[in-house]
Amino acid sequence: MPNVTWVLEPDIFPETHEPLRTAIRNRGHCLVDWSDAWWSDGVPSRVPSACVVFHGSLGNAARIASELPWSPGSFCLVEPFRCSAWYESARHLLVHETWHLCAANELVSNATEIASHLGATDRLFVRPDSPLKPFSGRVVAVGTLTMAKLDIGFYYDDESIPVIAAPIQTIGNEWRFVIVNRSVVAGSAYDPTTRSALPVPLDSAAAEFAPTVASEIPAPDVVYVLDVCDCNGQLRLLELNPFGGADLYACDANAIVDAVSAVAATA
To answer: How far apart are CA 106 and CA 116, in angstroms?
Structure first.
């Protein structure tokens, strides 16, 4: 396998990147720190355009995917990761059995009617359709919903951005898996309350459920991240995320570097 150049964004995911950096070096690959100055000054000549993988912030990952001629680059396609692109195909696996897609301002204007249609009453779960997450998914009160409560003006100004509204579900344990060529290569348990992470044995129930999901839905990319959770006593698909801008938590860094580098070397 040829050497792969890994470009990691400093100060992003420090706990994840420490073992990732070690794995990259131990495998004999090239490690380069990303700089935002490259957007204005140009990418240094020491960074090739082929056999290069970026991992860092979601914003930079998406911009690299659309603007830089890197191959494969950041594994951060936007359109295939929109909820509206894959929710229907995953309905039988998804946390949300029913949902409503509409513009954010439409949701605010018609919250009571939309909630009633979904079988909800006083509260809804709302998240952006976009994988770039201009606001974080949250539970909102139907009767007092405003654009301000969807963070308008913080990271976005367009009131018509598409959002997903769905009935509230009770979520238990969560797991994140890295998928490469439809196979699970690494996994991590994640406690959103304590923000702590632990490796997951690949023979665990959650790890055995993840490849079922990966095999039954259209792959949004060759490399991506798949989140599953406990919901009402069942394992369910929570969401899909682009690899290039996703925290890898306690996933096995060696396994990730080996699998993703193999993809990069043949891209």
So the answer is: 15
